[in-house]
Amino acid sequence: MSRIPFLTSLLLAIAITAVGQDKIYTTSGGTIEAKVQSIMPLKVIYKRFDNQAGPEYNLPKKEIIKIVYQNGTTDVFNPQLDRSDSRHGNTNAKKYQTKSDLGNNILTFIPGAYTYGLLGNLNDPGVGICYERILEKNGHISVVLPVMYNFTSDKDFSYYSVYSGSSYTGGKSYHSVSFIPGVKFYPASSKQRIRYALGLSIFATFGSEPYSAYIDNYSISSYSLQPDWHYSLYGLMISNSLNASVTKNFFLGVDVNAGVPVSDNRREGVNPIAVVFSPMLQFALKIGVRF
Predict the structure, then answer these.
(1) pLDDT tens digits, residue range 41-70?
(2) What is the spatial distance between Cα 3 and Cα 242, in angstroms, rounded to a whole number?
(3) Which of 143, 217, 226, 231 is the most exposed place for a label (fewest CB within 10 A)?
(4) Rounded to whole angstroms, how far apart are CA atoms 247 and 44?
């Protein structure tokens, strides 16, 4: 019968040992069985649980995911790294969501845009719409599909004109439509509410202008007797975007883009190299929804 108190004491000691330790989960994936002494602003001081009479250790908070204390309470220092799963031996702990509540789809209206050719061959305000789709879970890569409607400026005709006079005064309105599909890369995840993106796009612009802007044997007074000149412009564009998800669904964005034409049938007979060296800038304001 004398063994009963001994076994009882042994079982009690084992139980105390099992629940009396604090567990420190580190960002490297390890677990430290410890007795936490104090928590400082930048570090945690502890002793090894199996050597509580030994020296004190300290560990920077940035290297700690969380501490689960002997009484079951938890301090979390890096919630974005806390999975609280069976690998950390705490299936009942609160789970911290690492995925943003921001959606992967962005649909915007472009109430104001302006495309400017550095040689004076483009001076076009416009409006448009754009759809963007985030492709992967970390939100670094997306595809964009903008469509722009541009109002052709009289200044364009002055650049190309070979007729008498310095500007077009015929009174007819001209326009163009631009398709600018591309990809964007977010150095910081696009799941953040405010972020920068760098993109690469191709653009194709189709429009019409007065035929007299290019033909030297027609005067401005007789341009209306000739058909309009239908042109196409193709090239590459690098985009710089600053975007903000003001709320979960309300989205604002500003784009500043630089483009290089590779084909422009308004400049037939011109050395292709000269076409390439006709860069342009584009500015666009975006307002829309994210879902």
Answers:
(1) 899 999 998 888 899 999 999 999 999 998
(2) 75
(3) 217
(4) 36
